[in-house]
Amino acid sequence: MSETDASDRGLQIGFVLFPNLLNLDFAGPWDVLANLPGATLHVVAKDLAPIVSSSGLSILPTITFANCPQLDLICVPGGAGHLDAMEDEAMLDFLRQQEPGCRFLTSVCTGALVLAAAGLLEGYEATTHWNSHDRLAAYGAIPKQGRVVVDRNRITGGGVTAGIDFGLTMLAALQGEAFARQVQLGIEYTPEPPFPGAGSPETAEPAILEAARAKSAGYRAKMAEVDARAVARLKVG
Amino acid sequence: MSETDASDRGLQIGFVLFPNLLNLDFAGPWDVLANLPGATLHVVAKDLAPIVSSSGLSILPTITFANCPQLDLICVPGGAGHLDAMEDEAMLDFLRQQEPGCRFLTSVCTGALVLAAAGLLEGYEATTHWNSHDRLAAYGAIPKQGRVVVDRNRITGGGVTAGIDFGLTMLAALQGEAFARQVQLGIEYTPEPPFPGAGSPETAEPAILEAARAKSAGYRAKMAEVDARAVARLKVG
Question: What mean pLDDT do residues B228-236 have?
Fold first, then answer.
């Protein structure tokens, strides 16, 4: 598709969903980016069956991998289901096929690990949910702390609610800061977390952080297994 | 249903959806409250047809007004569709019928106006999206600024992203502060709005605020019409 066509058709934005995703990872940036004039937003999935989030919400995809046009911006959200997505060849193939023609390849939360498993973060600075940050390096990504990390056309957001900061950052890049400020006002994004400091491992109470780590031990073990297989596949491939 | 039954069955939480809602209004508190042990979360709507949000997302309801059990917590989100919801007798009847047995009657964003149109905020302090705050008084509500306003069992959140602060506040009330802190860490809620101050009318750049007001003039006019009818109906009823 020529540049002119791309301009005529408006920006094509695809959020790539998979079962057991964390809905808020994508709901934040979706409602921010939906404000972009002329953009078309797609809920992309393997098939059109409802996607059930980790919290039990059912969302209807709008287009399949097979029928999806070339996207200008891809965003992969995270959540527990990212582990299966990392081993889903249809998912990885879709991302690899889209990459060369895509202006922005992005993720929120553990969606970064899906990009990584597709081999698409090698040599790029990236961030992800704090509990998965130490997994990025094995894929050749350069782990960087940050609510939103921008490295050329790879833009990665931190955990879950970082998707809102990510969305506004993307919006400013695409439509200018004044427009992004308007949208920030529209969504009344003047957050007051009820427990200041509780949202980050650096500033959370040590007992709370330890409890979170203990609670996720089984999940971390599964992550390690998936990572070992995914990294091995990348090296073979 | 006796107290014992209520305890046995776990907390029943219902998000009441309607067409053209603002998805993020409910996606935030949903993913926060979904962490409550033993709770059941319902997507309640008039029928089971997919609900299409203002940003084009389709969400599947899980239960109809007719089949919904007594809820312990009702949350009404907002968005442009709240105006039609305010004149939907099935919606208003559902809220009125649920109210006497409901522990918490809550809203996010302009969902407060739906509660108000049902006559359920009279004499209660409440908040809503900044662009609708001046509408509350006509319904006998006591407008109060705040990200989350608690008055007895009416808990109202401000605009859109305030739903996350609302959800964490509710979670702390229901399951304790330590639990809410764990969830805040889990969703990495340590927000860094890219444009500090841009999210509130008090601190936004005057030109941006004026543009937002100008852009919403038609919407404000429609709000005024709906409010006039809804208030008249309440006085007659």
Answer: 93
What is the CA B196 to chain-centroid distance, rounded? 25
Contact B160 A41 (CB under 8 A): no
Asked if B30 and A160 come within 8 Å (Cβ–Cβ), the reply is no
Mean pLDDT, contiguous 10-residue spans, chain A (237 residues): 51 98 98 97 98 98 98 98 98 98 98 98 98 98 98 98 97 96 97 96 96 94 98 86
Token code pair at residue B67: 């089949």
Spell B128-160 as b/e; 16+ CB within 10 A means b: bbbbbbebbeebebebeeebbbbbeebbbbbbb
A102 is catalytic: no
Which residue out of A187, A203, A209, A210 would a mutagenesis test of the B interface target, given it has the greatest number of B Cβ atoms within 10 Å? A187
Read off the pLDDT band of B2 (50, 70, 90). Answer: very low
Give the helix/strand (H/E) hosting A95.
Answer: helix A89-98
DSSP strands (E only) in A6-103: 12-16, 40-45, 51-52, 58-59, 63-64, 73-76
The answer to whether A55 touches B41, Cβ cutoff 8 Å, is yes
Name the residue with tokens 């937003």.
A41
Beta B40-45 vs B63-64: how paired, if at all? parallel
For B161, the closest of A34, A159, A164 (CB atoms) is A164
The residue whose two tokens read 């031990």 is A217
- What residues of B are annotated to the active site? 109
* Cβ within 8 Å, pair A191-B184: no
Whole-angstrom Cα distance, residue A228 to residue B7?
44
pLDDT digits (tens, 9 = 90+) for B49-82: 999 999 999 999 999 999 999 999 999 999 999 9
What is the value of ipTM here, to two decimals?
Answer: 0.94
Tokens representing A18? 């998979």
The sheet with strand A51-52 has its strands ordered as A51-52, A58-59, B58-59, B51-52
Tokens 């009847």, residue? Answer: B93
- Tell me what the mean pLDDT of segment B28-46 comes to: 97
Q: What is the arithmetic mean of pLDDT over B193-210?
A: 96
CA distance B215 to chain A (A): 10
Strand-pairing partners, residue B165, are none
Domains annotated on chain B, with CATH: 6-194 (3.40.50.880)
